Amino acid sequence: FNIKGGDLIVFLHIQKTGGTTFGRHLVRNIQLEQPCECRAGQKKCTCHRPGKRETWLFSRFSTGWSCGLHADWTELTNCPPSVVGSKKEVRLRPSR
Q1: Sorted alphabetically, which PANTHER family does this protein's record hold (predicted)?
Q2: Fewer beta carbons within 10 Å, N or C terminal of the chain?
């Protein structure tokens, strides 16, 4: 995973598999060069790349329910690029 590059982690939550616990772990405990910033009482955490205002994690705990309450694989292959970056930025990047 290259946090400084164009890599993006998209978390697909499958119900009743421990996904809520794992999703919280991703934003609160993962040790990266620039981990997510979580504030007390805040539902979402900020997961920006070092020196940028661009997110590296696409999950309910970082971007909210951007693609719907329980987005499936199909929704998560089409929706994140339009939510995470500008249209111009998405066109310039290779497929993820």
Answers
A1: HEPARAN SULFATE 6-O-SULFOTRANSFERASE 3 (PTHR12812), HEPARAN-SULFATE 6-O-SULFOTRANSFERASE 2 (PTHR12812:SF6)
A2: N
Respond yes or no: is residue 25 known to be catalytic. no
Separation between Cα atoms, residue 45 and residue 23, nearest integer Å:
11
Angle 38-33-44 from CA coordinates, rounded to 5°: 20
CA geometry: angle 20, 43, 55, nearest 5 deg: 85
Burial of 68 (0-12, 13-18, 19+ CB in 10 A): exposed
Taking Cα atoms as reference points, which of 27, 29, 34 lies closest to residue 48? Answer: 34
Give the CA distances from residue 7 to residues 38, 41, 58, in Å, rounded to whole numbers and listed in that order: 21, 29, 11
Q: In this structure, what token pair is assigned to residue 67? A: 């693609």
Walk along the chain (96 residues) and give the pLDDT tens digit of each residue.
899 988 889 888 888 999 999 999 999 998 888 899 999 988 899 999 999 989 999 999 998 888 887 777 777 778 887 777 654 444 444 454
